[in-house]
Specification:
The complex is a heterodimer of chains A (436) and B (303).
Chain A: H1 7-28, E1 55-58, H2 67-82, E2 86-89, H3 93-105, E3 111-116, H4 120-124, H5 133-136, H6 143-148, E4 150-151, E5 154-155, E6 157-170, H7 171-176, H8 186-197, E7 204-207, H9 218-224, E8 230-231, E9 234-235, H10 240-254, H11 264-272, E10 276-281, H12 285-292, E11 302-305, E12 318-328, H13 333-345, H14 347-357, H15 364-367, H16 370-373, H17 376-384, E13 389-390, H18 400-415, H19 421-435
Parallel strand pairs in A: 1-2, 1-3, 7-10, 12-13
Antiparallel strand pairs in A: 3-12, 4-5, 6-10, 6-11, 6-12, 8-9
Chain B: H1 17-25, H2 28-60, H3 82-87, H4 91-124, H5 130-139, H6 148-158, H7 165-189, H8 193-201, H9 206-217, H10 219-235, H11 238-243, H12 251-259, H13 267-298
The chains are: A alpha/beta (436), B mainly alpha (303).
Chain lengths: 436, 303
């Protein structure tokens, strides 16, 4: 079969082809500062001492109402002491990682940057982060905090505030339901949720995440049921424990013990209005639920509890949550590392930061200070939740967000009844493995 | 085209009396029927369109601790203007507004300027490769614009244009040109060639014809294209966030940066700020809406 093209038709096709090739070629030219090293973090060590230099400081908190003046004050203080200038850079939290990645990869940013501990792997893969191991030595960081700032055995982040994501309860609703002790096992937990449902008035016993965007919360329950998620580079999702966890989640969903269409923001709103009795959150969420609650005494009704376990005596599971400071190689990175060290480990600075914002510090000295130990909520959160927290095994992979999404989509398929737990987890395991 | 409804008495109609008689026999209630359903439709669609705006207003007037109150209430139980008063304490908002106006207006002007000449060329000249070029311009619309973000970032970085108005204006103009060109080409197609020929016979130069005859006749189309480009520049979030830098940031990323946090969104403040900064644009659109509607439909039908 032969096809005959007129000259006009050929010109049209050539025009379309040139357009497609042109745009495709341009899209392939993503900026890269050095163009050849994207495999791992930089091993360079900044030199402390010497002449201080100006640098940039990226932080999403610099655009938020409460922390902005506090952090600006800290920046001014360091600028005055060191005789340098720090250029602030800020993006909204939800866009921050993408924007910072673009800036670092394009060589537009050097200096210190606030990061979520979950992002360390993704940023270290750019090959531009400084090893801050020498700046962490002898500063009194807790082992758990140091661990949260490490990626692949290297201390890329100095921990700024470290906590965990755990269960928070409304003691008033718990008492109304006749619950006097926090549930310790899954069985107790289910009984507690049923008692809370018995309160009626459309109370949601547990505002667990059920929207795809936040269904990654299921991972900690999979770990609770005994799935390691990743073992020696092999994804274990699809094992018996993960299937059991999802089947249990589906049971809660079907019984109305958890509600459809809930993410973290919804959970906070429901909890703050006294419409949900239990939800998952980090310590940073406390100010949000207290601020949104019409109850002026709401803060005193919050009580963090350990996540229930399958067998009595198991360690409760919790997921690390926190912020670290990384340093991006370039002009002023040595001074930026000193700034990161001062910001995260100077006792007066970190205790003051806690007093202003309620974010737990990361050095033992600051944690032992009267300000921290005297705060009942923080003390309880540290003891019951943060004490047994671990990092998400997915975080070691730069593509962790896609991995979490792959699991979340399958879990949602189970919740809406379009897939069985076994089939969905087998598919999720394959999808996640393919991403590694 | 117009439709005229006859109001003549039945006896003046001689060719087909039956329909007129039927019309005459319809009771006043029956005549009111269609009018009532039209009004019901208008109210339903109006509510559908305006309810989000009302909710925005109600939220902006609610105290923070009542934003998520349950059960939700159509009318805020307590009204406060503190979120509007707080706007005055935030000078960044005015900077975002100025940046948005500068970027959107220049984008609109540049898009209209370039696309008017391109559209005229495609419409009134015949040359080799014209159609291919037209489809090439259109083909750029096939790619998701977000795909071009990294590419544009690299290009602007290489030329030192990042964190400037130029980066935003050039990228927005790039995105608006294809549609503006095709929109204006359709508009120019409706202008009779005889008109242009007459002007040439009268001795007008090509540029004179374009500027003194074609452009004035195409004013509604030019305004429609300009408004489209303006809206594109005004609403963009991701390019403005990535390319503009902190000093040249426009309203969409500026508002998100100011009010949406890691753990909490300041909804009442965000709504108040959104309402205030939208007012000038809404007023502008009300003034220019007849051009927008006329310009969008003018090139749709030939003849």
């Amino acid at each position: 079969m032969s096809t005959t093209y007129s000259r006009r038709r050929l010109l049209q096709l050539m025009g379309l082809g040139a357009g497609a090739v042109g745009f495709g070629g341009l899209a392939a030219c993503a900026p890269s500062a050095d163009g050849n090293d994207t495999s791992g973090g930089s091993s360079s060590t900044p030199t402390s001492g010497g002449a201080a230099q100006d640098f940039g400081f990226a932080s999403w908190s610099l655009s938020e109402e409460a922390p902005k003046p506090v952090i600006e004050g800290l920046i001014s203080s360091f600028e005055g002491d060191a005789g340098i200038s720090i250029s602030p850079v800020t993006y909204p939290y939800n866009e921050y990682l993408n924007q910072l990645t673009l800036q670092v990869r394009g060589g537009q940013f050097s200096g210190a940057a606030q990061v979520d501990v979950a992002w360390l792997g993704a940023l270290a893969a750019l090959g531009k982060l400084t090893d801050l191991g020498s700046f962490a030595d002898g500063r009194g960081y807790t082992d758990a905090a140091l661990q949260a700032g490490q990626y692949d055995g290297t201390q890329f982040g100095l921990p700024w505030t470290i906590g965990a994501i755990g269960l928070v309860t409304n003691t008033e609703l718990m008492q109304q339901a006749g619950i006097t002790a926090a549930p310790t096992t899954i069985e107790d937990f289910e009984a507690t949720l049923r008692a809370l449902k018995g309160l009626g008035d459309n109370i949601i016993p547990y505002a667990a995440s059920t929207k795809v965007a936040q269904l990654k919360d299921i991972l900690i329950w999979m770990q609770t049921f005994g799935s390691p998620l990743v073992e020696d580079g092999t994804v274990t999702i699809g094992d018996e424990a993960s299937i059991e966890a999802v089947a249990w989640y589906k049971k809660l969903y079907d019984e109305g013990l958890i509600a459809p269409d809930v993410d973290r923001f919804d959970a906070r709103a429901l909890f703050s209005q006294g419409r949900a009795a239990i939800y998952d959150d980090a310590i940073v969420g406390k100010s949000a639920v207290v601020g949104e609650s019409p109850d002026p005494d709401f803060a005193s009704k919050l009580d963090p509890i350990s996540r229930p376990v399958v067998q009595s005596g198991d360690d409760p599971r919790a997921l690390f949550w926190g912020h670290a400071i990384v340093v991006v190689d370039g002009d002023g990175s040595g001074t930026a590392a000193e700034f990161a060290q001062w910001l995260t480990s100077d006792e007066a600075t970190t205790v003051g930061f806690f007093e202003d914002l309620g974010l737990p510090p990361t050095t033992q000295a600051a944690l032992d200070s009267g300000a921290v130990t005297g705060d009942a909520f923080t003390a309880a959160f540290s003891e019951r939740v943060t004490a047994t927290a671990t990092v998400n095994p997915f975080w070691q992979y730069p593509q962790y967000a896609q991995m979490e999404s792959a699991v979340a989509e399958q879990v949602q398929a189970v919740l809406v009844g379009s897939s069985s737990p076994a089939d969905a987890m087998a598919a999720a395991g394959e999808a996640v493995q393919a991403l590694i | 085209m117009s439709t005229v409804t006859s109001t003549r008495p039945a006896d003046s109609v001689t060719t087909d009396p039956a329909p007129a008689n039927r019309r005459r026999r319809r009771s006043p209630r029956a005549r009111r029927g269609p009018r009532v359903s039209a009004w019901v439709a208008v109210v339903v669609f109006g509510a559908f369109a305006l309810l989000p705006v009302y909710w925005l207003l109600a939220t902006s007037l609610s105290p923070q601790d009542q934003v998520f109150s349950y059960p939700p209430s159509i009318f805020p139980s307590d009204i406060t203007f503190e979120h509007y008063a707080d706007l005055a304490d935030n000078p960044d908002l005015f900077r975002y507004l100025v940046n948005s106006v500068v970027v959107s207006v220049v984008t609109a002007v540049l898009s209209v300027l370039v696309s008017a000449y391109m559209g005229y060329s495609f419409s009134k000249f015949r040359y080799r490769g014209r159609r291919s070029l037209m489809y090439l311009v259109l083909s750029s619309q096939m790619f998701p614009q977000a795909l071009l973000l990294v590419t544009l970032y690299a290009v602007f970085s290489a030329y030192g244009l990042l964190n400037s108005y130029a980066a935003l204006i050039l990228s927005f103009t790039t995105f608006t040109l294809p549609l503006c060109v095709w929109m204006l080409k359709g508009f120019f197609d409706t202008i009779p060639d005889e008109l242009i020929e007459s002007a040439r016979v009268d001795g007008a130069s090509r540029l004179r014809i374009i500027h003194s005859i074609v452009m004035p006749l195409s004013a509604p189309g030019l305004v429609a294209a300009g408004l489209f480009a303006f809206v594109r520049g005004w609403n963009d979030f991701i390019f403005a966030l990535t390319l503009a830098g902190p000093d040249k940031q426009t309203l969409p990323p500026g508002l998100v940066n100011t009010y949406v946090g890691e753990a909490q969104t300041a909804w009442p403040q965000l709504m108040a700020a959104s309402l205030v900064v939208s007012l000038p644009v809404v007023i502008g659109f009300i003034v220019l809406q007849r051009y927008l509607v006329g310009g969008l439909t003018a090139g749709a039908v030939k003849g």
